TrEMBL record, chain A:
Gene source species: Micromonospora sonchi
Domain ABC transmembrane type-1 as annotated: residue spans: 87-291
Domain of life, per lineage: Bacteria
Gene Ontology CC: one annotated term: plasma membrane
PROSITE patterns membership: ABC_TM1
Protein name per Swiss-Prot or TrEMBL: ABC transporter permease
TM helices/strands, residue ranges: 30-53, 93-113, 122-141, 169-192, 228-247, 276-294
Membrane topology designation: Multi-pass membrane protein
Keyword Transmembrane helix applies: yes
SUPFAM superfamilies for this protein: MetI-like
Cited InterPro entries: MetI-like (IPR000515), MetI-like_sf (IPR035906)
Subcellular location(s) of the protein: Cell membrane
Automatic annotation (TrEMBL), chain B:
Gene Ontology cellular-component terms listed: periplasmic space
PANTHER family recorded: SPERMIDINE/PUTRESCINE-BINDING PERIPLASMIC PROTEIN (PTHR30222), SPERMIDINE_PUTRESCINE-BINDING PERIPLASMIC PROTEIN (PTHR30222:SF17)
CDD domains assigned to the protein according to its UniProt record, in alphabetical order: PBP2_PotD_PotF_like
Keyword Transport: yes
Protein name per UniProt: ABC transporter substrate-binding protein
Residues making up the signal peptide according to the UniProt record: 1-31
Gene Ontology MF, one: polyamine binding
Keywords: Periplasm, Signal, Transport
Source organism superkingdom: Bacteria
Locations listed in the record: Periplasm
Alphabetical GO biological process terms: polyamine transport
Record carries keyword Transport: yes
Matching PROSITE patterns: PROKAR_LIPOPROTEIN, TAT
Amino acid sequence: MSAFAQLPGVAGQSTSPPAARPGRYRLLPYLLLLPGVAWLFLFFALPLAQLAAASLYDPNGSLSTGYTMTWAFGNYPAALQAYWPQFGRSFRYAGTALVLALLMGYPLAYVIACKAGRWRNLLLVCVVAPMFTSFLVRTLAWKTILSDHGWLVGLLRDVHLLGPDGRLLATPVAVVLGLTYNFLPFLVLPLYASLERLDHRLVEASRDLYASRWQTFRRVTLPLSRPGLIAGTLLFFIPATGDYINAELLGTPNEYMIGNVIDSAFLVRLDYPQGAALSFLLISAILAVVFGYLRRAGEDVR
Amino acid sequence: MRRALRPLTRRALLTGTVGAAALLATGGTLAGCGIPGAQQTGAGCVSEDLSGTEKKLAFSNWPQYLDVDEDDESKRPSLDSFVRASGIEVTYTEDVNDNNEFFGKVQHQLSACQSTGRDLIVLSDWMVARMIRLGWIQQLDQANLPNVAANLLPSLRDRPFDVGNELAVPWQSGFAGLAYNGRVAREIRSVDELLTRPDLKGRVTALTEMSDTMGLLLLSNGHDPTDFTTAQFDDALDKLRKAVDSGQIRRFTGNDYAPDLARGNIAACIGWSGDIIQLGFADDRIRFVTPDTGVMIWSDNMVVPRKATHKANAEALIDHYYDPAVAAQLAAYVNYICPVQGAQEEMEKIDPELAANPLIFPDDAMLATARGFMALDEQQERAYETRFQQVIGA
């Protein structure tokens, strides 16, 4: 703790090079890490370890008799066998939503960062503004928008994109649209941050060297925005895969995702080993996808 | 600053290793212990009653389940009259939104015999049955409940999970039956119609509460929900599965079917009587239907959890609500079935129309067709609930 008292000194002595007094600051990085590490340990590592343990409990245990540790690795294949359709669906929906979000989000971030001029701050506020209300309220609002007797469905019926009895609510379309909408800001903001720092001289240079607009985008803008793109897609994809609110409110049982199953395992069916096993399967599946993606996409970022 | 931090990256490896080792060690420790059983007994988990010295009561209930003053929403006439008469200070919290969710909230305290900070909780039949099974509920002192003994509806006495009426007292009851919106659909008469009529396809919801949905389906097959076999349950479940697979049923819901029904997004549903009466006030073409095959009756019950320290105060409040005049005051606001005999006469003075409503004061013939759901043991509950959840999608 005493090192924190020295913190103002760091600012005060900024003229003298830090390398001159190495001993004094050696502990500082660790102390700065301490709150974050303690937080992660208490609220992430410990619960995760507990979850890992719970996923191996005796599946025949119950609330009144308790659960004993039997290293029941069979919980994993059993859970996967029972709920693989929901697993597949989660990745399919999140993937589709990601593509939609990229198609909308990239141009949006690009315009805000490079072309918006004095409107930039206003546009940024517009991207963030929905986050001022709760996730749940926003999703409930979508129920009104997509309502069977709402103007949107009416319009789509009039132009024959939907049959006379067609609907949006309670279909996969509604769930994917909900996911796209709810997580879009997580994609746009990191993208904006990296596009905003884009060095426009490079773009000009590319044009001077007779690259077409498309070539400039593909060879200059896109690679330079890659860190934001990677961060944005991850921030979008990971929560979207585990989401269950959109499927719950905008879908039907046939659209339920793995999050709904985990929710029901823990709260309704009280099958803790299965719920824990499913959670771990989800975590590992997402980690596998993320690592695969980072290997391919992230290799020349650093 | 960058240079000062640089050495950390190498050391991070070391720290990481130590951290991982610590994690594994924790994992190993946790792995050793498992989760202890949650069963409690009165002797093993003694609750002290401080009502004699502390004039306090913490009461947890569902939202919009207590009358409020029309002019001032912060006033709750029936509760305020209790506070005035008894001098007991009531902390009223609307923190029960869902039986399962609430169970998740209090299970860690109750399974470890710790106080939940609540003296009186209102929960549905099957959840109360589960908590009684786990030994989490305190026995009530009959001597403190003269109004309950005198006025509780006979059909709600000696229920399978509480023979002798010593543990749970109904707060309100209700029917689970069918409902439809006459603006978007023709009248509906039976569960079979709900599950098969082509014009309702994709515009039907059912309840996530297994006892209500499955109870109505069992009845529609001519079976008795108070006493059914596994084969009969499976028959009913197959019927439900067909309706889900064909896309007839759009969703399974809690209370949230009500706005969808009002908007016409859904045309018909399995729903609760009180909700539909309230929707009916705004739009008289939304109607509740008791299917010919029979209707389900359920109650939300007041229970005193273990380690609650104001049991006698809680009993005083329970008894207050079994005064017919108070019960009528409450029923006029919430519109569910009033479990108190004599309240109908009191209701005549408040609102004769409500007093004549068979969904608030059902007659004997109606009560005779109404069924509760069989009391399940833990294994049955889990087996049935798992299969039901698989059909409803999770």
